[in-house]
Amino acid sequence: WMLEDAHPAVLLAQEHLLSRLPSHDAQVLCIDTQWEDIALQPRHAPSPRATADGLAYVIFTSGSTGRPKGAMNAHGPVVNRLLWMQAAYGLGPSDVVLQKTPFSFDVSVWEFFWPLMT
């Protein structure tokens, strides 16, 4: 139901898990076996296409009241929070961030993306 609800354009997966996926329309990139294809991609960063109100990620509720629901979150608030964290705490290239929060909780977003700013 997550793939059905989210309709991702690209799906990152491990090849040995592909048979477990339900039917979907996403382009699949196997991060454990397609390194040659990945290496052919340009090394420069692509031109930004995201907007502040564009979708950044979807996180699903626990489903305690029935089927889990996807909560859509925009880029603007995520970027705002990350910029504040960087200004307040100054994470540098030699620092590490403990990924302590389960990825199913929205607080985990900062732990995933903040280190990518350094």
From TrEMBL:
- Return the InterPro entries for the record: AMP-binding_CS, AMP-dep_synth/lig_dom
Keywords on record: Phosphopantetheine, Phosphoprotein
**Entries under Pfam families matching the protein:** AMP-binding
State whether keyword Phosphoprotein applies: yes
Give a yes or no for keyword Transmembrane in this entry: no
Positions of the AMP-dependent synthetase/ligase domain: 2-117
* PANTHER family reported for this sequence: CARRIER DOMAIN-CONTAINING PROTEIN, PLIPASTATIN SYNTHASE SUBUNIT D
Q: What is this protein called?
A: AMP-binding protein
